[in-house]
From TrEMBL:
Domain D-isomer specific 2-hydroxyacid dehydrogenase catalytic residues, every copy: 18-318
Protein name per the record: D-isomer specific 2-hydroxyacid dehydrogenase NAD-binding protein
Domain D-isomer specific 2-hydroxyacid dehydrogenase NAD-binding: 113-286
Entry keyword annotation includes Nucleotide-binding: no
Organism phylogeny: Bacteria, Pseudomonadati, Thermomicrobiota, Thermomicrobia, Sphaerobacterales
Length: 318
């Protein structure tokens, strides 16, 4: 049985020596191939030939790419999200798909909170003002203390965000397809339907995977339910928010602002949010901390090595 592993994601390729040693200790071999970024589908079709394991970033592993993967047995995403992988086609071909569930929940939660504080206190606007020689007037914003935080998706990242909210003295509401009442009761969190969460929250933070059910979950109707003083934070996946609806809501002042780490198109060729001073934008960096990257690095390698050695992966999704 072949055990050749290819790392596609650029954030891990710089640690090839460490990865090679880790894999060798587990009877696997790191394959060195030149990867040209941004990676095209045609290039991926060439890269995946004659490899048994694959570690991806956000490179699109489509049905066509999988059709060229003549030996592939396992794919591990280098993060939590795996919507860039055609899981249905991989499953049909008997390929295990894994992710790094739990590796970045603290990092993403901290970014979400950084955005909440930055927006409520206009930190980035005032920073630019001083750099341009100004000093005031100072816009007044809300404290987080005693405000309502709405968590859409109380998984690992949502839970970490909720706990930060409680530490800041916030009332925390949550909604999800499954309600974990033990966790909620232990930490003073109230489950409510999405509509009520949107109506009552001062900050709405999105922590759901991208699925057919969550695509454009936040649309015109959802935004219309929010308070005009409320802020929307999205560190999950871009298409969870309908871009045109959010742009219209910001233009109309129907919400107070937004913090966005993810977008419908990445990188965005003509980002419509850059005109708004009440929007914070970051380039999908939720999991980009030393700590999260270290955890993901070893978990992705372990996922692949385990499957190639006939052992269970830690985080298989199919």
């Amino acid at each position: 049985m072949g055990k050749d592993v290819l790392i596609l994601t650029s954030k891990f390729r710089g640690r090839a020596d460490v990865a090679a040693e880790f894999l060798e200790q587990r009877g696997c071999r790191l394959v060195e191939r030149e990867v040209v970024y941004p990676v095209t589908e045609d290039h991926l079709c060439e890269l995946v030939r004659d490899v048994d394991g694959l570690i991806t970033g956000l490179e699109p592993i489509t049905a066509r790419v999988l059709s060229h993967a003549n030996r592939l047995k396992v794919i591990s995403a280098a993060g939590v999200g795996f919507d860039h992988i055609d899981v249905e086609e991989a499953t049909r071909r008997g390929i295990a798909v894994c992710n790094c569930h739990g590796c970045n929940n603290h990092s993403v939660a901290e970014l979400a909170f950084g955005m909440m504080i930055g927006l409520s206190r206009s930190i980035y606007t005032l920073d630019r003002q001083i750099r341009n020689g100004g000093w005031g007037p100072v816009p007044f914003g809300p404290e987080l203390w005693d405000k309502t935080l709405g968590i859409v998706g109380l998984g690992r990242v949502g839970r970490s965000t909720a706990l930060l909210g409680r530490a800041f003295g916030m009332r925390v509401l949550a909604t999800d397809i499954v309600w974990d009442m033990t966790f909620a009761n232990e930490h003073g969190i109230s489950y409510v339907p999405l509509e009520r969460l949107l109506r009552e929250s001062d900050f709405v933070s999105l922590h759901v995977p991208l699925t057919p059910q969550t695509r454009h979950l936040i649309d015109e109707r959802a935004l219309a339910l929010m308070k005009p003083t409320a802020y929307l934070i999205n560190t999950s996946r871009g298409p969870v928010v309908k871009e045109s609806a959010l742009v219209d809501a910001l233009h109309a002042g129907r919400i107070a602002g937004a913090g966005l780490d993810v977008f419908e198109v990445e990188p965005h060729p003509n980002n419509p949010y850059v005109e708004f001073d009440n929007v914070i934008l970051t380039p999908h960096i939720g999991g980009s901390t030393h700590d999260a990257s270290e955890r993901a690095f070893y978990l992705a390698l372990t996922n692949v090595a385990n499957v190639l050695n006939g052992e269970p992966a830690h985080c298989q999704v199919n």
